[in-house]
Every structure is written in C-alpha cells, then in structure tokens.
C-alpha cells in the first residue's frame, strides 16, 4: 500500500503557471486524473514521476520526496505519453533492458510481456509496432519490477476499442490488487469506466475530487445552454419561460436566434419539441452552445 | 560507475543510426588518401606528418568525437526516450560515466586505429610519426568525448555547437589567434605527440604540463557537470 501526497504544490515555467497550489492524495486503487488539454495533468504526473521539481510545495511517496531520489523507482512504474522509445530494439530486447536496469533477469521481462499479451510480437522491431502495441510494450517496461505505484500519462490515446478494454481490465486488476494506479485523460467516459476515484484539474487548479458519480452529477446538472432558431422566436420564448426547467432566455436579434439556459437538462429536452408543436412553431436549429469539455470543466471549477 | 545495460543501449543507438555511416566514411577516406599519397609520392616523413596532423587529428578525430559524444545521449534527450533510463534505480552520474566510456571507445576505435593504419601506410611509422599521432588521437578521443557528451546533455543543438568548436574554433581561430591554441584539445594532444615523434615533425604550441593539466581538467570537469545536469534534467512533457 503506497500513497503519493501532493502538498500545496505549484509549478511554473517562466511566467506560465502550469500547476497552481494543488493538494491531493493518491492512494491504492485506480484514480483518474481528468482535465482538458493543457490543464497541467502531465506536469502533475511528471512531478509524481520525479521528472520535474515542484516550484513550491512537496511531492512525496510514503513521506519520501520523489524529486532527485532514484531509489523511488523501485516502487514506481512510469508509462510516459511520448511515443519515443528505443525503436531499433525488438519488444523483448526493450523490456529485458528495462528489467536489467532494475537488477532483474529475463524471467521478469517474460512475465511482463505475458501480462500485456505481447509475446506474439516480441521479436519484431519496435519501429514496426502500431501505437497500441507500443503502448503495451511501454506498459510491460513499467511493470517488470511489479511496482506498487503505476503512473500513466494519457494511456488510451490512439488505442482501438479492443486494446482500450484490455488495458482497462489490466489496470482494474492492478487496482484490485491494492496497487496505486493513476492515469490521466481528457475524456470523461474513459475515466468514468475505469476509475473509482477522480481528480479533476482545470487550468492548473485542483477543481474537484471524489467519486465519479458525484462529479458526473455535477456535470449533468449544470445549466445547459442552447441556441435555438424557430419560425416564431418570441412566441417560443414566451411558452418556454413559463416552465421551471428554463431558467433564462435571451432574444438575440442580430443572430435571429434564442439563447436559452436550461436548468433541468432532462425535462427541457422533452419540453422543447412538445411546446413547439402545441404552438405550431417550427424548430429550425437546436444546438447546444457550450458542450465543449472546457466549458463543462470551468463550470466544475466555479461549483 | 558502469552499467552494462546502459552501455549496450548506447552502442546500439550509436552504431545503428544513419549518422554512423560518417563513422565509417571518414576513416575509410583517410586510409584511401594515405594509400594514394604513398602510391604517388612514395615514403615521405614530412608528408606523413602533415596528413596525419592536418586531416586525421585536426579534422577526423573531432568530427568522430562530435558524432559519438553528442550521439551517445543527445537523441535520447531530444525524443524523450531517456525517460526509460531515468525511471530506474540507477544513479544518474553512472549513466553519464557509462555513456562517456562508450563514446570514448567508439571515438578511439574509429579515429585512433585508422590513424595508426594510415601512418603505417604512409611511412611505415618512420620517425615514430604513426605512433605519435595515434597517441594524440587516443588522448584527444577522451577529451572530445567528455566535452561533446556534456554538450549533448545541455543543448538540443549539440551537433552544431560541436562542429563550430571542432572546425571553426580549433581550425580557424587556432590558426589566426595564438591564444585560441592554448584552449584547443587538438593542441593538447599534439603536445603529447611532440614528445613521441622525431624532432621537428610535430609542432605543438602548448607545453606538456599545461596540456596534461588542461586535458584532465576538461575531461573531469565536463563529466562531473554532465552528471549534475542529468540529475536535474526535467522532462517537461508536450503540454
């Protein structure tokens, strides 16, 4: 059982603050680090992996600082996001080299390759591997020493659905074994399927932490905005505002459209077509205007 | 201070890349030129010394040093694959020392051995010229490897800086400004060659004690500094 503690940690690059006063604890089980691109997920993982010094604050593993301490790698396995590996080696040679660097023998490498089901291609050069195969060999290299902590930066990027499911199964098993598994992703569904615990970062800040159901609710319960065009905007607006599921409507004369804010997502989506039909109004456009992940996240930050 | 796995990966990276072709091409060129010179002019100690000093030591050794020294670590840092070495319980200075030893071995193999062969082709080691320049090449291999390994650790443009140092500083400034010669690996190596070869065939501008002191200082200093740099190396990711 190993715990990583991030305590009042910030990291800046010149004038850019990548991580801003984050405090979080990552314990046994699978934790998802969720946030839009550029939110500071990689910076956090790099600090937890000992590849980046915190500008202020501390990042520790069971109380021991990670930065500048190569002994922590006896407990930590890292799966980097970057593709580059030793392409001139075969998969087996690469994993064996990683095992040797841990002072382990070929048997450890064989076990790791079996765990990720890469034995069938282990004698091919890495240069010939697909993205998913590379990802699995990277996994094997991080697993050779059976670490108690596994850090993965965007591990599902570029994987096909079957590979994604295999990797999820593997990570779930590792979490059930009591290992501390942390992976980053910018895709909510990925995190939701795998992680029992979620940490959300947005713009370098720690936005939310906890059970995924709680976070999911926060995300679906937020006010939804729609852009609607119809044959009679004002009549539609009048009819909609009468219902409590609609919390605000703006008539945008220049655009020739309504900007509607719905507070009850489920009820509003049923209401809109019914109201239009009852009043003989034709709906020309109905489009959600802030479904981008960034707006979902920024709502979370404000909550 | 030596890790056989790091060494194996470094050898394969150095000799497996396209750049490695230059490692083979330059020595081949030297030997072909030596053969041609011998065929046209016969045995000539002066020409032998000029060719080994002017081409082998002044051009070939530093170029091979640049390729082996920067190539032993630069590409790994550039593409981020160094993370697989850094995420292991291996001391960072050990990684640097191992890579230095590999770079030295490769530079020596591809510069000192061809120099010796070319020397024998040119004048059968008359006046000890072949041996003198081979010793110079061996010593220069150590200092160049340490210097260019450090460059590869601190800069993304290590090859360019390495070439600028090897070709412009040592060759151009060295011949124009006498002070620049004091700070030149080539001149330090020549100081050793001068002691071995017959009188008047090798001309070094630096005294032997100064040369040895500077060689040791540069090699040790560069290696220690590279080890420090690697310990503090940050991988910023792609955000």
TrEMBL record, chain B:
- Read off the Pfam families from this record: ABC2_membrane_2
> Keyword annotations for this protein?
Membrane, Transmembrane, Transmembrane helix
The UniProt transmembrane annotation reads: 20-40, 52-74, 95-122, 128-151, 158-180, 200-225
Tell me what this protein is called: ABC transporter permease
